[in-house]
């Protein structure tokens, strides 16, 4: 510990360093933000002790940077430590505990640990509702986060209901230019896209883009998200040339912001691959799909659920080109990942089984196809009974 005079000096130093770390983070300057957050942890430990709330704040800030950079294990470790310090210091129902719970839940979502994330999001929401009331802006953000988890779990009706609740709170507060309302527009648009309501989805994505551009600036990473989603609508409508142009804009922003070896960059490679496939440029599509898979394996590991999309897309390309041995390898890889992530009776596992069955049928392996199709039907029947 330090003397009172030294503590005042450390207060100023910690405040300034933390402010700079947060500012750099908001500007998308993640390497600079990480170094400043590390420095603020060192300052806080030396000045206030390893269990002080300032250490927790600094650890939480660094975990947020690491999450965006794709360093998910490091982010999770820091977030758990920060939450433990805060709960010990101020109790489990302190309003700021809700923030730490929310951040840890977000990391779990990024790691594909959806079952671990849901109770944290719900506990965070309950704390905020008790402390702030039902119509506070923070409640809208919590609804949006929980809805996003439900969307990823394909619980679309639950997700849509929560997105609408989030928007109602923003409108109640007359806060139509908040960057967080743009996130809600963006996420609700994804639900409409899944339902095939492309005009509604495109309108919401464009609204999100305008808010982010006006509040965050044209170089902010969220702009890449908005452009990516608009490109996705063009792709679904068959406007491949326009989609490719926009996806390549996104790739430039991703590589500048995150570097090549990041999951967001992998997603953009996958999207460009889909466009290339739509344009009949199959060799280019294969190359982009493989790049997406390699980056994703490097950043998330070989068993993350997000990898399945890339693996299945490449398998589908091989099937269409009658490269059945390659297609089988990647369809099986996707099935194994889903079984490990969600268990053997999840509907996504059934869909993966049907993909493999369809390929077997095309390749004349009828008995194997029948066996997989029957297994998939049984999974769907059990799922319907549960619901």
Automatic annotation (TrEMBL):
InterPro entries: TPR-like_helical_dom_sf, TPR_rpt. It comes from the Archaea. Keywords: Repeat, TPR repeat. Gene3D superfamilies: Tetratricopeptide repeat domain. TPR repeats lie at residues 98-131, 140-173, 182-215, 224-257, 266-299. Pfam families: TPR_10, TPR_12. The keyword Iron does not apply. SUPFAM superfamilies: TPR-like. This is Photosystem I assembly protein Ycf3. It comes from Candidatus Methanofastidiosum methylothiophilum.
């Amino acid at each position: 510990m330090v003397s009172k005079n030294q503590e005042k000096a450390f207060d100023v130093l910690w405040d300034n360093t933390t402010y700079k770390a947060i500012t750099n983070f908001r500007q998308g300057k993640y390497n600079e933000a990480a170094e400043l957050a590390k420095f603020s942890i060192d300052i806080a430990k030396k000045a206030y002790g390893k269990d002080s709330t300032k250490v927790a704040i600094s650890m939480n800030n660094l975990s947020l940077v690491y999450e965006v950079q794709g360093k998910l294990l490091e982010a999770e470790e820091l977030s758990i430590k920060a939450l433990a310090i805060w709960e010990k210091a101020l109790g489990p129902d302190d309003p700021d505990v809700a923030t730490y719970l929310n951040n840890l839940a977000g990391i779990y979502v990024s790691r594909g640990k959806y079952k671990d994330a849901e109770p944290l999001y719900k506990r965070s929401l309950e704390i905020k509702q008790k402390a702030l009331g039902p119509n506070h802006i923070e409640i809208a953000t919590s609804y949006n986060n929980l809805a996003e988890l439900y969307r990823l779990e394909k619980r679309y009706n639950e997700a849509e209901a929560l997105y609408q609740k989030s928007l109602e709170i923003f409108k109640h507060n007359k806060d139509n230019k908040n960057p967080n309302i743009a996130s809600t527009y963006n996420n609700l648009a994804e639900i409409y896209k899944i339902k095939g309501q492309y005009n509604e989805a495109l309108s919401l994505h464009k609204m999100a883009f305008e808010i982010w551009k006006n509040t965050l600036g044209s170089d902010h990473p969220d702009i890449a998200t908005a452009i990516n989603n608009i490109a996705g609508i063009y792709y679904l409508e068959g406007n491949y040339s326009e989609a490719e142009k926009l996806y390549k804009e996104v790739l430039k922003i991703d590589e500048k912001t995150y570097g090549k070896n990041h999951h967001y960059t992998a997603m953009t490679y996958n999207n460009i691959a889909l466009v290339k496939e739509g344009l009949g440029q199959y060799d280019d599509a294969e190359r982009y799909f493989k790049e997406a898979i390699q980056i994703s394996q490097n950043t998330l590991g070989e068993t993350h659920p997000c990898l399945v999309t890339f693996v299945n897309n490449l398998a589908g390309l091989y099937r269409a080109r009658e490269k059945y041995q390659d297609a089988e390898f990647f369809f099986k890889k996707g099935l194994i990942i889903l079984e490990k992530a969600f268990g053997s009776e999840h509907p996504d596992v059934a869909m993966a089984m049907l993909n493999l069955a369809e390929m077997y049928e095309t390749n004349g392996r009828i008995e194997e196809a029948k066996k997989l199709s029957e297994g998939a039907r049984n999974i769907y029947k059990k799922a319907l009974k549960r619901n």
